[in-house]
Design goal:
Elements: H1 26-48, H2 59-85, H3 89-111, H4 128-154, H5 164-188, H6 207-231, H7 235-256, H8 263-334, H9 344-361, E1 364-372, H10 375-382, H11 384-401, E2 407-412, E3 415-423, H12 426-441, E4 444-446, E5 449-451, E6 455-462, H13 470-486, E7 492-494
Parallel strand pairs: 6-7
Antiparallel strand pairs: 1-3, 1-6, 2-3, 4-5
Helix pairs in contact: 1-7, 1-8, 2-3, 2-8, 3-4, 3-5, 4-5, 4-6, 6-7, 7-8, 10-11, 11-12
């Protein structure tokens, strides 16, 4: 059977509720109609051959009862579970009906001749089994009918969450009590029960048909109630209708038959098992649907996670690229591309900062303006590439001549500036200048050539009593540098 149901958009909480109008697919309607047609045709054929006696097989009753006990018990469990998910009285009442079915087959089997005890019964008398059957086929359609009526009246009024468990408890108790009353009646009061079948195992023509007719009428009435849900294309109502039709087939075959182990009797047991199995198959179909959709959802989640991971990776790559570009921009803005030393812009920013700090703390700051002597001759003789390598070596040597907190920068061409913050003594500045001149005078192996250069250094000092801004301090150091060049190069001079 195809027991699929579709997702409705009206209420996302009940996506998988089997009683929802429109939950049945066209395939479900076709399959259910086919099953119903088979049941009707089989019932008609059985009535035609109802008198045909078949082999006596009491163990079939045992199998039949065990099947009903297990299948309807599971169906009841699933219905109560559905009630916990969708707390409509409909599910609880229907669960109680199927639980009653599962329980009532116990006294039926115990009272059936040869069912558990060869050629005899465990409880009751000769009329007990047939009365259990009639009680079963009267109570069950009543409970199903009540559940269907409850569905029409309480769909919009679910049971409060706090009452769900007590409600289930009351329904279970109802099923147990009803089954117990049937058991008590057929075991203790069996001698007082009206005779339904004669010793010759032919049905009693009046009482038997009266009670059986009542069971048929009640089943037909519940079937009519379920057809209302069929018109609304509710999955559960459709298959309840089919189950009731099979249940009615059991009643009709039993009424038409002339005794046990006939075609009608065996057919009644078979369609009653089919009636029990239908609702279980519905829930198994729903579980399969839920599993399939869960698997699809998990696959979608894995796919989404992979896409998200790819997006995160792409984002990280973009962030890395952005940081790289930002660093490149910073390099272009603040770093000299030849020597990798701070350029004029960074020098002026840093110089303004340390001069502000010196003013607050009354420190002195020295600025050394350095120009290489006759650097143009190196470029002219050996080329600009060699000249650039010479500038790199000069920058490296200047860094070795100063403190960790000092700044060495290249202004451009062959001009370098060194900022010395927090100068305590003039002698320290002179020592630094002398060290620079000495180290730069040492030969430099560049591109296979041993080059010699010298430097002229101009020094300007900003003191607490005579403070200068960055531009002025740099200008004064520049003037002092030119004074050093006029004095003969390869020396330092202080600004006046």
């Amino acid at each position: 059977m195809h027991l699929d149901c579709c997702v409705t958009e009206s209420d996302r909480r009940w996506d998988f509720a089997l009683d929802q109008p429109g939950s049945a697919s066209p395939a479900t309607l076709r399959y259910s109609a086919g099953v119903a047609a088979i049941i009707i045709a089989a019932t008609v054929a059985t009535v035609a051959f109802r008198h045909l006696q078949l082999a006596v097989f009491p163990q079939f009753a045992t199998f039949h009862a065990g099947f009903i006990l297990v299948v309807d018990g599971i169906a009841a469990f699933l219905l109560f579970g559905q009630f916990a998910y969708r707390p409509l009285a409909f599910y609880a009442l229907l669960g109680a009906a199927y639980l009653f079915n599962a329980l009532v087959v116990i006294p039926f089997l115990l009272s059936f001749p040869g069912g558990l005890k060869a050629e005899s019964v465990v409880i009751g008398g000769s009329q007990s089994a047939i009365w259990v059957w009639h009680a079963w086929h009267i109570v069950f359609p009543i409970m199903v009918g009540l559940s269907l009526l409850a569905h029409e009246r309480t769909t919009s009024r679910p049971v409060p969450a706090a009452r769900v468990v007590p409600y289930i408890g009351w329904m279970v108790a109802t099923a147990v009590v009803l089954a117990s009353l049937v058991t008590l009646a057929v075991s203790v009061f069996h001698d007082h029960l009206p005779v339904l079948i004669t010793p010759a195992r032919a049905p009693h023509t009046s009482t038997f048909y009266a009670v059986g007719g009542t069971a048929a009428a009640l089943t037909a009435f519940s079937l009519v109630l379920s057809l209302r849900g069929v018109r609304r294309r509710s999955v559960l109502h459709i298959w309840i209708a089919v189950a009731l039709l099979a249940f009615l087939g059991d009643v009709v075959a039993s009424l038409a038959g002339t005794g046990r182990y006939t075609v009608a009797w065996y057919f009644g047991r078979i369609v009653s098992m089919a009636s029990a199995a239908i609702l279980l198959m519905v829930f198994l179909g729903q579980i399969n649907l839920l599993y399939r959709r869960l698997a699809e959802t998990i696959n979608d989640l894995f796919t989404s996670n992979r896409k998200l991971a790819a997006l995160v990776e792409e984002k990280e790559a973009l962030v890395g690229e952005l940081r790289r570009r930002k660093e490149e921009i910073r390099q272009l803005a603040y770093i000299d591309p030849v020597t990798s030393l701070p350029n004029r812009r960074m020098l002026m920013d840093w110089l303004n900062h340390i001069l502000a700090q010196a003013a607050r703390h009354e420190h002195s700051t020295a600025l050394l303006f350095l120009d290489l002597d006759k650097f143009k001759e190196v470029n002219d003789q050996f080329g600009h590439e060699t000249g650039d390598k010479l500038l790199q070596e000069v920058g490296s040597r200047l860094i070795r001549c100063v403190r960790s907190g000092d700044t060495v920068s290249r202004l451009g061409g062959d001009e370098f500036v060194i900022a010395l913050p927090e100068i305590a003594r003039l002698e320290d500045v002179e020592a630094t200048a002398e060290k620079i001149i000495r180290i730069l005078s040492e030969p430099m192996p560049i591109a296979g050539h041993l080059l010699k250069v010298s430097a002229s250094i101009g020094i300007a000092i900003s003191k607490p009593e005579a403070q200068f801004d960055a531009t002025e301090l740099l200008a004064r150091a520049d003037v002092a540098m030119y004074a050093a060049k006029k004095a003969g190069r390869n020396r330092y001079c202080f600004s006046g």
